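Attaching the record inline, Q. Sequence:
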Amino acid sequence: MSYKLITKDGSAKRGEFTTPHGVIQTPVFMNVGTAAAIKGAVSTEDLQTIGTQVELSNTYHLHVRPGDEVVKKLGGLHKFMVWDKPILTDSGGFQVFSLAGLRKIKEEGVTFHSHVDGRLIFMGPEESMQIQSNLASTIAMAFDECAPAKADRSYIQPSVDRTTRWLERCKREMHRLNSLEDTINKQQMLFGINQGGVIDDIRIEHAKRIADMDLDGYAIGGLAVGETHAEMYRIIESVIPYLPENKPTYLMGVGTPANILEAVERGVDFFDCVYPSRNGRHGHVYTNHGKLNLFNAKYELDERPIEESCGCPACRKYSRAYIRHLLKAKEMLGMRFCVLHNLYFYNNMMSEIREAIEEHRYSEYKRQKLEGFQNQE
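Structure, as predicted:
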């Protein structure tokens, strides 16, 4: 397994990441299937059709339901959801942030209540690695604390120090698990996560410390959680130079098409976000001319596809008027069409990005793309 840097255009990287489940062309957008499915009635066959390279599932949610032991007994996540390409599982660390009212953080790990049935769950670095090993994902994320972006130094520094100690424990545990006879994916890869809120010097020092640990990849976490876009871009610019260029860099939970374009220019390889599926389920669709709300009355008699030049399953056959009718009638098919379109839009944009970097015209591509997004119908 390795990361090959094919070329750079400024700081933008075009790479190939070889994994046990295939080669990932980067930059890449990972399609988010929280509970081993993309919300909106999208199957893994659909993911193949719309050009998905990597599916992302949620460690915490699959631990709660159906249970990672169940998934292991059924042959692991790839077999369970019938997907033979790479899968990344997050660590459960974000739930430490999002379930703030239900948890207690200690050095050993985090105790919190299940959002499903209220039962008490303990998760630390070892437990997170064990769950992800049971799921047998391609890439496992280290267990961390995603601290509030605006927390002050007195909170952030101890949190980051603990995240570093947790990463060391994750690495040891993954090495142990990958050596066990009954482990499904004995080549499971580990990405560490950079934290530090919006405090540059803490971020940089943490990046240096985790870069020395020689992991398979590195993520920038704890962004898009309350800070401004300008602050997010500043932190990316501060951190990237201190992460290994010969390893993939993953900006977690980001974002809008504009966010992705800006982050690619700063050297990010991997992205994920729920926006395309979540917005699609509410009738909001992305186009090269801005985002459309198909619930708007002006689309009632609109016979055009969502986007004229789009090759997604919805745009190849169906009109805005028909999809709007489905949404208004609360037919799931309307939601499905919108989610498929949005994921195709993101996946196709990443393909365009890769081509632009290869041809050393990324700045011009980005400029044209951002200008197009301003031309709302």
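The chain has two domains: 2-273, 280-373. The radius of gyration is 20 Å.

More tomorrow.
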